[in-house]
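Try this one yourself first.
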């Protein structure tokens, strides 16, 4: 160490005395004896070749040099703390990747994740919503967990609940004998296939009026009375009502909601999977 070096311990002693205007109070803050703090201040003064404090009747006061050093001392110690914090090895947050249908990702999952986050703040969940037909095949690569929809009594994974597919439209919508405008999801969606097959089997004329990957967009079109759509009974948007055979619409099948886990699942992902399994299974239909 050269004569111009500033020891962080000496600067901390200096700031303690400067902030509290007392060697005695500074010593208590630093958990040192008063004589030890006095020695540190004297060493700092000798290194800088300046007087840092003047003694007064009420304690000590900063000299002109002391006032000038005060700014640099705070900056140096702040920079030292920042460097130590940046370079210190820290525990990385665990990340769990979850794939789920759009309606569950919008309505069902958020409150369950909020509850999980309160008890496990160290686990970060990355969620992706969309069509789940191909998601289970990407377990281990893109997802740790997938909540997917399957035809009733089919598919792998853990059965969470059974959902009835229903026709839905605006409260004022009347499904007359005219060609039905239908708002659906893109090809690959189970509900799209069921809807078109059911209408064709019933001989009911229809046209594809709107296609979107998101529940919000499909719901908005249906809520304006521009089309009918298909939703899960358990996640029926509040702006829509269920249409039935009395409205001239064919019945639709039920779907199984299943949880798929990647192989060699991490402990954080297992904790989230168990939480979702309990919460969704026990709640039944929403």
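Now uncover the answer:
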């Amino acid at each position: 160490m050269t004569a111009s070096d500033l020891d962080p311990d000496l600067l901390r002693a200096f700031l303690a005395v400067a902030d509290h205007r007392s060697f005695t109070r500074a010593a208590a803050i630093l958990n040192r004896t008063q004589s030890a703090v006095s020695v540190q201040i004297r060493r700092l003064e000798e290194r800088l070749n300046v007087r840092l404090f003047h003694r007064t009747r009420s304690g000590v006061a900063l000299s002109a040099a002391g006032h000038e050093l005060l700014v640099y001392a705070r900056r140096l110690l702040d920079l030292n703390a920042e460097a130590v914090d940046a370079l210190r090895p820290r525990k990385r947050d665990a990340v769990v990747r979850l794939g789920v249908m759009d309606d569950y990702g919008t309505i069902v999952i958020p409150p369950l994740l909020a509850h999980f986050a309160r008890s496990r703040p160290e686990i970060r969940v990355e969620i992706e919503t969309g069509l789940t037909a191909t998601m289970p095949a990407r377990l281990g690569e893109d997802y740790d967990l997938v909540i997917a929809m399957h035809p009733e009594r089919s598919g792998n994974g853990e059965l969470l609940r059974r959902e009835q597919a229903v026709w839905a439209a605006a409260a004022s919508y009347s499904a007359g004998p005219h060609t039905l405008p239908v708002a659906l999801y893109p090809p690959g969606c189970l509900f799209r296939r069921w809807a078109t097959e059911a209408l064709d089997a019933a001989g009911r004329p229809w046209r594809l009026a709107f296609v979107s990957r998101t529940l919000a967009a499909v719901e908005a079109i249906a809520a304006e009375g521009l089309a009918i759509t298909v939703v899960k009974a358990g996640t029926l948007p509040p702006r829509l009502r269920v249409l039935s055979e009395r409205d001239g619409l064919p019945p639709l099948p039920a779907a199984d909601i299943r949880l798929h886990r990647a192989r060699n699942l991490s402990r954080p992902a297992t904790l989230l999977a168990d939480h979702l399994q309990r919460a969704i299974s026990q709640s039944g239909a929403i």
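Discussion: The mean pLDDT is 88. The radius of gyration is 34 Å.
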